[in-house]
Amino acid sequence: MTLYQPFLDYAIALLQQRLDLQPYLIPEGFEAKSAIVGKGKHQDEVLTTSYGYQATKLRQIRAAHVQGGNSLQVLNFVIFPHLNYDLPFFGADLVTLPGGHLIALDMQPLFRDDLSYQAKYTQPILPIFETYQQHLPWGGDFPEEARPFFSPAFLWTRPQQTEVVETHVFTAFQAYLQAYLNFVEQAEPVTNSSSLRAIEQAQLRYLRYRAEKDPARGMFTRFYGSQWTEEYIHGFLFDLERKLAMATTE
Ligand code: DBV
User: What domain range is 167 assigned to?
Assistant: First the structure.
């Protein structure tokens, strides 16, 4: 069992239990990809598997799971709501590299500085954030330009011990996902056209940032080449622009 497999299993089981979960098409060639990396005795297989679902209010629920031995484990799990809901994104970036663990967990806001948005989608999460932050202190250095995409309840931490990932990070992940699904349950469709435009702009801003700055681009390019990597990023991981372009040419 690899470090983040229980996170993935938990998430899929909970989604199945709470949503009308349907599959989301994963483009051919991206369901599973493997490469042998390193030399001589240090060779390791790096396997990347992808998961995709959708639900009534959620356009894309997707995960990328990278397994390459004890010092290379990644679970990147993001939920993109449909464009007629003001729901935040659920964003989890759980990363284990030779240098240690790096954990990012948040409900990423569409409108960071809007106080009524914060009251709706951040205030209710703060007690959960505070509970876990005691065990998961702020992780330090963080790209300034990414700040607008995170909420005040952003858990950002670099645990020294794997055991902390297996315990506190795992329970925090469960609590955030449960709280997110409560928001989803309560969400009502937005019909006002200026609000709809604002949501689409905010989703595109987020998506463009993530596709452009994907911190995994270097790693994937080394393992699988740049053609596979760019197609994976734009055609699956962050695919909103492609989907919108397809919808207007149909
Ligand atoms: N990150 C992804 C995807 C990944 C992934 C799709 C499938 O968005 C993995 C893989 N994240 C990943 C890896 C690293 C990070 C780091 C492999 C380590 C990169 C390295 O050190 O070489 C949150 N993830 C990070 C960092 C942040 C995040 C802040 C540190 C990057 C840095 O210091 O420059 N999640 C990430 C992020 C956003 C987010 C940047 C922006 C909105 O939601």
Answer: 5-193
> What's the whole-number mean pLDDT along residues 34-61?
94
CATH code (residue 103): 3.40.1500.20
Q: CA angle, corner 112, sides to 89 and 102, nearest 5? A: 55
Q: Whose CA is nearest to atom 17 of ligand 1?
A: 216
Domain total in the chain: 1
β-pairing, 44-55 vs 32-37, is antiparallel
Let me know if residue 161 belongs to a domain: yes
The ipTM, to two decimals, is 0.94
Instruction: Using the predicted structure, report yes or no on whether residue 85 has a pLDDT greater than 70.
Output: yes
Does 232 sit in the ligand 1 pocket, CB within 6 Å?
Answer: no
For position 217, what pLDDT does the model report?
A: 98
Instruction: Tell me if 218 is assigned to some domain.
Output: no
Tell me if 3 CB under 6 Å of ligand 1.
Answer: no
Answer for the pair 168, 204: CB distance below 8 angstroms, yes or no: no
